[in-house]
Design brief:
single chain, alpha+beta, seven-stranded mixed β-sheet
């Protein structure tokens, strides 16, 4: 049975999970590029709200929310799912859980998603995230990054839409 834990922590399971991810998954979730040891894992999860998706006793997903510097009411969202467990709805359950937890405590959840990560872009859009901007990542083959956000207060989202319309009509 799939369930999500906040307090789970096992260096060996998390390291095994990371090592099991395929190269494309690592490419999309670049948080793991520097994790090759238990110390690397500890530094990865430090200062974050961590969420662990478990299928029975197997770790199949990792997600986090992290406070943005100088932004007391905003957290960034990151999530990765085991390659062999894509397409079963566990990722959506994980996203919903983490987003709900975050919006109970913060006014905005922000995420950056590479342009070629269609699965994650679709999940974000279907869960009510809105596009804030598009950036080109000069360090990663020029791939574009979609900056997306979800607000607890719908009025803040409406304000963002108003400003987007204003930007579009500027001459």
């Amino acid at each position: 049975m799939f369930h999500i834990e906040r307090d789970f922590y096992d260096d060996d399971k998390l390291y095994e999970f990371i090592r099991s991810l395929g190269p494309e998954t690592i490419r999309q979730f670049d948080q793991f590029n520097s994790v090759y040891s238990a110390n690397g894992i500890r530094s990865l999860i430090a200062d974050r709200y961590n969420f662990f998706g478990m299928l029975d006793d197997e770790l199949i997903a990792y997600g986090f929310l992290q406070k943005l510097k100088n932004k007391n009411n905003v957290v960034s969202l990151g999530m990765v799912m085991s390659d062999k467990h894509h397409g079963h709805g566990y990722g959506r359950q994980m996203y919903e859980h983490v987003i709900n937890w975050g919006l109970e405590r913060y006014i905005k959840i922000w995420s950056a998603v590479y342009e070629d990560n269609d699965r994650v872009l679709h999940i974000h859009k279907s869960l009510g995230f809105e596009l804030e901007g598009v950036f080109v990542d000069e360090l990663n083959d020029g791939r574009a990054i979609f900056s997306v956000a979800k607000f607890r207060d719908k009025r803040r989202m409406t304000r963002r839409w108003e400003l987007t319309r204003k930007w579009r009509i500027l001459k």
